[in-house]
Amino acid sequence: MTNKNRNLQLRKTYNVIRKTYNVNLNTAVYIAKRYLFSGKKMHAINIISGISMLGVLIGSAALIIILSAFNGLEKVILASYSNFTPEIKIEAKLGKTFDPNTPYFNNLRKDPRLLSYTEVLKEKVLIKYGDRTFLGTIQGVSDDFLKNNRLDSTIQTGSFTLKSGGHYFAVIGSTIQGNLGINVKDELSPIQIFSPRREVVNSANPLNEFVVRSINPSGMFAIQQEFDDIVVTPIEFTRDLLDQPKEVSSLELTYKKGTNLSRVQNKLLDDISSRFTVKNRREQDTELYKTLNFERWSIYMILTFVLIIAIFNIIGSLTMLVIDKRQDIAILSSLGANKQIIQRIFFFEGLMISAIGCIAGVVLGLVFCLLQQHYGFIKMGGPMSIIDAYPIDIVLSDFVLVFLTVGIISVIASGISARLSVKGLDEIKQDL
């Protein structure tokens, strides 16, 4: 036989096998569809299948809703965090402060891509208001700090004013305000800030060992717990309090839109990484991002476990369907249907139940999320909350994740059910 004839024979054999497979596949899908959507009479099997479908629907909808709600909360948290943190932060590797008046930093200040170049001086201090005291942090900032136009969104009372009419003002965090009971509208009651003197002073009066400065608060902000114990002042006020005429704790850089921040950070690391750390927003608070990521996947795993329970109910409903259809299975087997065809019938039955439940659940979840976005009918419940209703952020990857999760679990559950369907097939045929 020539190679041409052999190839022709193989092609014919392949076509026959493919047609046979397609016929078997179509037959299995058709019978599975008939079992699922049979409208002649309602059996207990149909009710159980409906309950299984409802379980998948509720599980899929819950996954979409919870993941979207978590996305919304994460977006709000990171947005409020970004309102107060720079895109790039430079700090000394050794020591708490450094001198920014170097040729390199002076040239960096002139970078046309920069939106703001903020010098920051930070230290722990004792804050006193009336007869109450609180151990907090003072953060002196240069004028460029106020170029951040999102600072006003953090203000709960008053305004974000640091200088006015030749006077210095402070903006305090909500934790400080809550502990000291500060009234930012009372101009006659300034807050006092205590800082240890740099030089050693031997005095019978302990107060002589501290530098004390008074300043009026202009506003109160609320962001996150780690920021809300900060009092923000002009850097000139902080330099006088801490007796630091030149040095700073950090340089905070914010760039214009469209700037490639990764390239900027890599360039800074190449130039000054031997003496300084250069951190982007994610690196400035790695614990926050790790916590958010951990919570997200924890929620996903819990809901997936619930979904597994719901989908594996399909095994029970298909097992009962096999018992109910014993006679049909025997007849199909007598007509020439092999074990593979019978397995496919119940395999596709399980997939159909899961697919219908999943699609309906995803649609229901999407509708709920859209309604919550537009109307916000589920409230946060706190009068002091930054946002009124639970935020929702719909992300396409969540839908892909839900479909993949349901698909994988459904294939496993349907495969188990399909294998059970052909057990005892010989006994079924004998009973017929």
Summarize the topology.
Elements: H1 3-37, H2 44-84, E1 88-92, H3 103-109, E2 114-129, E3 132-141, E4 155-158, E5 163-164, E6 167-173, H4 174-180, E7 191-196, E8 210-221, E9 230-234, H5 235-242, E10 250-255, H6 261-272, E11 276-280, H7 281-284, H8 286-324, H9 326-334, H10 339-375, H11 396-421, H12 425-431
Parallel strand pairs: 3-9, 6-8
Antiparallel strand pairs: 1-10, 1-11, 2-3, 2-7, 2-10, 4-8, 5-6, 6-9, 7-8
Helix pairs in contact: 1-10, 2-8, 2-10, 2-11, 8-10, 8-11, 9-12, 10-11
Explain what this protein looks like in three dimensions.
- The protein has twelve helices and eleven strands.
- Strand 5 (163-164) and strand 6 form a beta hairpin.
- Mean pLDDT is 81; it is low at 6-10 and 12-23.
- The chain folds into two domains: 26-79 and 289-431, no CATH class; 86-284, no CATH class.
- By secondary structure, it is an alpha+beta fold.
- The protein has helices spanning 3-37, 44-84, 103-109, 174-180, 235-242, 261-272, 281-284, 286-324, 326-334, 339-375, 396-421, 425-431, and strands spanning 88-92, 114-129, 132-141, 155-158, 163-164, 167-173, 191-196, 210-221, 230-234, 250-255, 276-280.
